[in-house]
Design a protein that fits this description.
9 strands, about 15% strand, SDR_oxidoreductase, NAD(P)-bd_dom_sf, Short-chain dehydrogenase/reductase SDR, 7-stranded parallel sheet, Rossmann fold, alpha/beta, globular, single chain
Length: about 290
């Protein structure tokens, strides 16, 4: 299929665009002269937010990113319409509150489907296009939860740890091909994520604090100190960098939380050094680990 228009403008493919960080990014991109493939389950919500004079620069695509056929179709529609895709932002997310014992296999699989496998599918299927044009940029939106562990957020933190690992491996694989990959790790930003995209495990046991955790998450997000518009200003700047960082933390709380986590892990590792090195063969070459 011939593209409707081949554009000199950068074309961004963004998921999770009906609210929050995703919708803010779409608006920022259009205001800065970019073109956008806005992927969403609710196209009418996105359409209502776009000024009439900017509608020519946005293609709103209804897609189920948990199904590879739908992902492929959305990418093909974007390329057919604009002639190319330059930047991908895997922003769509799903949260669930529940301890491991409370969670069903179905619930944790849904979290992985949205937060991990959808991003995997989009990355996998955009790479051939990026290889063909010898350029491209992928942003995967993680969370500070991908750098530590939070009780009663077992599923969510697991998905974000997995996404982190995927992203860093992908960056190494694609760097020789001229394709850039960056992880984004925000802390609490004022968005409707908890209200719209956070669910509870159907089973709730008295031994755990899932209800209190939900109130905590609601306070962190709905009253968050982070400004989504400022975050997206940085994302747009990073996309223009010749040598971008591999990961960007967003929000003061992100620094506070991650430094605390790393300190705890470093202290634990140092404490257990004798145990750790005792497992080597006696004649194994010595390694300077300090």
């Amino acid at each position: 299929m011939e593209p409707i228009s081949t554009t000199y403008k950068k074309v961004w493919y963004v998921t999770g665009t009906s609210t929050g960080i995703g919708l803010s990014l779409v608006k920022k991109l259009l205001a800065s002269g970019k073109q956008v493939v806005a992927v969403t389950r609710t196209p009418e919500k996105v359409d209502a937010e776009i000024p009439l004079e900017q509608k020519a620069d946005v293609l709103i695509v209804k897609a189920d990113i948990c199904k590879e056929a739908s992902v492929i179709e959305s990418i093909e529609k974007g390329i057919a319409h604009f002639g190319k895709i330059d930047v991908v932002v895997n922003n769509a997310g799903f949260g669930i509150v529940g301890a491991v014992e409370e969670l069903s296999e179905e619930e944790i699989r849904k979290a992985f489907d949205v937060n991990f496998f959808a991003a995997f599918s989009i990355c996998k299927n955009i790479i051939p296009h990026f290889k063909q044009q010898k350029s491209g940029f992928i942003f995967n939106v993680s969370s500070i939860c991908g750098w530590g562990s939070l009780s009663e957020f077992s599923a969510y933190t697991a998905t974000k740890h997995a996404l982190n690992a995927l992203t860093f491996a992908l960056e190494q694989e694609l760097a020789p091909l001229g394709i850039k990959v960056v992880l984004l790790s925000p802390s609490g930003f004022k968005t409707p994520f908890v209200d719209n995209n956070m669910q509870h495990a159907k089973v709730q046991l008295s031994e755990y604090n899932s209800k209190e955790r939900t109130k905590w998450a609601d306070d962190i997000v709905n009253n968050g100190r982070g400004d989504p518009d400022k975050l997206n200003d940085i994302v747009i700047q990073v996309a223009e960098m010749e040598n971008p960082p591999k990961n960007v933390f967003f929000g003061t709380h992100a620094i506070q939380y991650v430094k605390s986590e790393w300190k705890i892990q470093r202290e634990e590792m140092d404490k257990n050094v004798p145990i750790t090195i005792s497992t080597d063969y006696p004649d194994a070459p010595k390694i300077d680990w300090e």
